[in-house]
Amino acid sequence: MTPNSYFITGTDTGVGKTLVTALLALHLQSRGIDVGIMKPIASGCSRDHGELVSEDARWLCEITGIEDHLDLINPIRYEEPLAPIVAARRAGLSTAETLMTIMEAYRTLCSRHEAVLVEGVGGLLVPIAETNGRILTCVDLAEALKLPVVVVARRGLGTINHTLLTCRINMQPPARVCGMVFSDVTPVSTTDVAAETSPMLLAEMTGLPIWGQLQYLADLDRKALGEAAAILRIPG
């Protein structure tokens, strides 16, 4: 396991995993660490000159300035915005080699960078592949990569249950939840009691550190992202 490398998961889809991955990368870069990024599986990709492209993966490259080829950063791509195994089945594609393909790309990125951040797809139990009659999830991916897990969650009502369930999923070490980042993907009122109290209660209940609470960013320019990255508290 490479120091400062993490697997970023979410309590659900659309909780801000890609944004948090970018901010973690910017934070590590500000500390002088050569960091690589990876979004190994993406669904809901668009066509660009006949090729499937993940806009999230492309955005990560633009924001961080990382120049690895998109085929390394995002080796598995599906057009329909569905759970990967469903998207693959509907496209008539085999997923038997998915894990091997990801591992090869990850090893290449590790050889080029001091640390690699890997963004999962959806939550930890999202089905990503099928091999030998067994359905694999993001838990299997995190375990194969041997990476500690950072959980990205909302602050609002309902987050306590979703976050606790995610943090308590049993994984084989060194894949384990090591921290939480709370991300406001929409504006949150200062009078929202659930949003104000949930993070600290979750820290109390899980014993996990909060790496940051990110307020909604209306503009995702480099200045705003740099300021948001600076408030993250990453160990090491």
Q: Which sequence of SSEs, written as H and E, runs from N to C? A: EHEEEEHHEHHEEEHEHEHEH
What level of helicity do the residues show?
A: 25-40%
* Tally of discrete structural domains: 1
CATH architecture: 3-Layer(aba) Sandwich
Shape field: globular
Q: Uncertain runs with pLDDT below 50, 5 residues or more?
A: none
Distance between the termini: 15 Å
Count the beta strands. Answer: 12
How would a crystallographer describe the biggest sheet? Answer: 6 strands, parallel
Q: Could you name the CATH class?
A: Alpha Beta
Give the CATH topology. Rossmann fold
Calculate Rg over CA atoms.
Answer: 17 Å
Helix and strand content put the structural class at alpha/beta
Q: How would you write the strand order of the largest sheet?
A: 2-7-1-10-11-12
* SS element count, helices: 9
* Average pLDDT figure: 96
